[in-house]
């Protein structure tokens, strides 16, 4: 596990924690089980270097949670201050503010637990919420002074930890109740649902009470005096003397210097002066004869230092993750954020716009991360794949093995091409695959290349030679989490929803399949084969079986039948996909391409090494099983066209060009001579 590679983006400097995976295992052995992993956050131009972190949507609901927390802590602080001052307390206002905070915190806890599915949403929530908690507790002693100056000076630090104990006890009880409720609903183990990171924050008070700790421990005065009940000035002075004595002994004592060199060789990034931050090293020094426990840390101080070291290392680890929280806000319909300064020191002053595909965490909503996404999808389907596989099964082992080698080579070429076009394989379907992407022109180019790969495979005696169908759309998909890994590549989601249904309907094959289905149904009901064939004979004789010979003479083709059904043996795209091709940052010029009576809008796609020529034409509205009628476009490979010789269209947008071509085709169709009507029999 290379966890520190993720923390590089936090610009966090480690004072006590060594940047070493072995150190991470010592400090937090269960880190892989409880720590969330930062994700890539793409800017508007997705080709730019992405940010790394946790995108948290900040809005009125998240502000209410923080305001409720602040109101409750203020009332709790007043109650605890009153107990120190007079012993008389008024808890009604405190209880009211707690209920307001409890309701919001309980809602966020249930939301993150229900929708996590192993993605540690509750841990991410506490990384985010602990920022507000730690800042409020850090300022709490000064807040006590504002209530009562004398009480604050004498007891401010003790009050801080009394308020914290009260806060933590209530929060843990609320979280246990919320997790138990969700466990009952989902029939899961309660232990597996409770956020492990909250247990760490319970055991290490520094995480929820401090937001920075310097090497000289100056921020820990309240912790040392108010929680550990030791003199912070004396403790820090002894630690300083300890460092000075250690440096001197490394120079004067060759045995100690040799031992230090051996330890630092085990961790190349460690310096001899940092050995005091290695657990157990001070205990080793304290057993030496030249160690002065009266001037340096005494035995109790050594135990305090060793215990504090573990907490400081753990604090720095979680602080680095906490600094990867990136607040996101909506501005004029877009998501923007203050990007972290790459040189460290907070955030850049200028807001940056994020990619439209960004899905920030919104803890006050049921799903936390909206599972509904919009993506450009490409699906391909090899025709009659199952039938050919069944035949090959009885053709001998050699033919069967060759067929599987050929499909492996074909799919490998397709996958390599998909990666070059920044497409993601979402589902492998055996006889095809589903890919998604964020740029329509890349999917358009990928579809044309896939068709060329199929032609090449046929020349190599590809046994699956009945054709390949493809469809492109821009649709709604829902992400179903299947596996959660350490990196983006290891996370696995499944697409489901309307987008997949639409694509599958576009590649279901010939519409005559409907007639064949009815035939099989009639035969199963007991009708004879002669009766069934006789019933459908008029449809076949009058060419009402939806076959258009002028279209099917091409290698790849697609058209709308006379009954409004889609015949796809090529590449088709939905209106939603085609309407967004212009939005990909490129537009005109467009050209007019002819293929017999068919007229296409021709465009070029720059691929760096050359241009890909693609033709599009509107087929019309198609009736697809189970979904509403949609407008379909045919896409063809324009390899045979030379754009230098094609007439250029004056349209500035693709939609306008397609509309113009479609109207001209309709005019030509109407003006063409109609076939003579068939004579009717006179009975």
Give a verbal description of the structure:
It is built from 25 helices and 18 strands. It is an alpha+beta fold and 683 residues long. The protein folds into three domains: 57-322, no CATH class; 372-496, Alpha-Beta Plaits; 513-671, no CATH class. The strands form three sheets. Strands 6, 7, 8, 9, 10, 13, 14, 15, 16, 17 and 18 form an eleven-stranded mixed β-sheet that branches. The protein has a five-stranded mixed β-sheet with strand order 1-2-3-4-5. The longest helix is centred in the first third of the chain and has 38 residues, at 149-186. Residues 676-683 have low confidence and may be disordered.
Question: Which SSEs are present, and which pair or pack?
Answer:
Blueprint: H1 4-7, H2 21-27, H3 31-34, E1 39-41, E2 51-57, H4 60-85, H5 92-114, H6 121-138, H7 140-147, H8 149-186, H9 190-193, H10 196-203, H11 205-209, H12 221-227, H13 232-252, H14 254-266, H15 281-286, H16 299-322, E3 325-331, E4 334-340, E5 347-353, E6 372-382, H17 385-393, H18 397-420, E7 424-428, E8 432-437, H19 440-459, E9 468-483, E10 492-496, H20 498-506, H21 513-524, H22 529-541, H23 549-552, E11 557-560, E12 566-569, E13 571-574, H24 575-578, E14 590-595, E15 598-606, E16 611-622, E17 630-637, E18 648-649, H25 654-671
Parallel strand pairs: 2-3, 9-13
Antiparallel strand pairs: 1-2, 3-4, 4-5, 6-8, 6-9, 7-8, 9-10, 11-12, 13-17, 14-15, 14-18, 15-16, 16-17
């Amino acid at each position: 596990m290379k966890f520190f590679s993720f923390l590089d983006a936090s610009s966090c400097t480690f004072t006590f924690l060594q940047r070493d995976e072995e150190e991470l295992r010592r400090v937090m052995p269960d880190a892989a089980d409880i720590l969330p992993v930062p994700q890539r956050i793409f800017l508007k131009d997705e080709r730019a270097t992405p940010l790394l972190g946790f995108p948290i949507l900040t809005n009125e609901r998240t502000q209410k949670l923080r305001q409720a927390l602040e109101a409750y802590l203020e009332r709790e602080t007043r109650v605890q201050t009153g107990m120190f001052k007079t012993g008389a307390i008024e808890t009604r206002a405190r209880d009211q503010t707690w209920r307001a905070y409890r309701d919001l915190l309980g809602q966020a806890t249930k939301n993150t637990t229900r929708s996590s599915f192993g993605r540690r949403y509750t841990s991410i929530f506490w990384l985010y919420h602990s920022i507000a908690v730690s800042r409020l507790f850090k300022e709490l002693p000064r807040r006590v002074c504002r209530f009562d100056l004398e009480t604050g000076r004498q007891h401010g630090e003790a009050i801080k930890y009394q308020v914290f104990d009260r806060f933590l006890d209530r929060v843990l009880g609320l979280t246990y109740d919320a997790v138990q409720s969700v466990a009952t609903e989902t029939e899961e183990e309660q232990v597996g649902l409770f956020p492990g990171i909250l247990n760490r924050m319970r055991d290490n008070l520094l995480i929820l009470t401090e937001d920075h700790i310097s090497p000289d421990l100056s921020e820990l005065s309240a912790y040392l005096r108010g929680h550990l009940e030791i003199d912070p000035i004396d403790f820090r002075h002894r630690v300083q003397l300890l460092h000075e004595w250690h440096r001197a002994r490394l120079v004067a004592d060759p045995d100690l210097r040799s031992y230090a060199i051996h330890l630092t060789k085990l961790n190349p990034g460690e310096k001899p002066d940092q050995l005091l931050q290695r657990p157990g090293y001070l205990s080793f020094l304290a057993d030496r004869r030249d160690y002065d426990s009266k001037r340096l840390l005494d035995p109790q101080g050594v135990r305090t230092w060793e215990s504090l070291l573990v907490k400081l290392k753990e604090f720095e680890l979680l602080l680095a993750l906490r600094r990867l929280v990136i607040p996101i806000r909506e501005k004029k319909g877009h998501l923007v954020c203050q990007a972290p300064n790459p040189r460290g020191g907070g955030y850049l002053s200028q807001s940056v716009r994020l990619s439209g595909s960004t899905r920030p965490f919104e803890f006050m909503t049921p799903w936390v991360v909206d599972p509904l996404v919009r993506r450009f999808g490409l699906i391909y389907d090899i025709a009659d794949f199952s039938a050919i596989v069944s035949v090959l099964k009885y053709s001998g082992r050699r033919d069967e093995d060759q067929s599987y080698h050929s499909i492996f080579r074909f799919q490998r070429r397709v996958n390599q091409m998909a990666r070059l076009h920044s497409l993601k394989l979402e589902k492998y379907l055996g006889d095809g695959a589903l890919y998604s992407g964020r740029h329509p022109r890349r999917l358009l180019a990928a579809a044309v290349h896939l068709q060329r790969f199929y032609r090449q495979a046929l020349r190599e005696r590809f046994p699956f030679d009945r054709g390949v169908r493809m469809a492109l759309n821009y649709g709604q998909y829902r992400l179903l989490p299947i596996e959660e890994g350490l990196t983006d590549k290891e996370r696995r989601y499944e697409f489901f929803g309307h987008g997949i249904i639409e694509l599958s309907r576009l590649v279901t094959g010939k519409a005559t399949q409907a007639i064949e289905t009815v035939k099989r149904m009639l035969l199963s009901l007991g009708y004879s084969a002669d009766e069934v064939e006789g019933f459908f004979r008029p449809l076949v004789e009058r060419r009402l079986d939806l076959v258009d010979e002028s279209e099917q003479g091409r290698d790849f083709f697609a058209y709308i039948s006379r009954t409004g059904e889609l015949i796809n043996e090529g590449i088709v795209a939905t209106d939603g996909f085609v309407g967004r091709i212009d939005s990909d940052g490129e537009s005109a010029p467009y050209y007019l391409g002819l293929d017999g009576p068919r007229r296409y809008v021709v465009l070029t796609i720059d691929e760096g090494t050359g241009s890909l020529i693609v033709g599009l034409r509107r087929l019309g509205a198609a009736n697809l099983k189970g979904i509403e009628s949609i407008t379909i476009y045919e896409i063809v490979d324009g390899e045979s066209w030379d754009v230098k010789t094609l007439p250029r269209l004056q349209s500035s947008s693709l939609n306008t060009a397609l509309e113009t071509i479609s109207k001209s085709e309709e005019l030509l169709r109407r003006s063409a001579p109609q076939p003579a009507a068939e004579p009717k029999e006179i009975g």
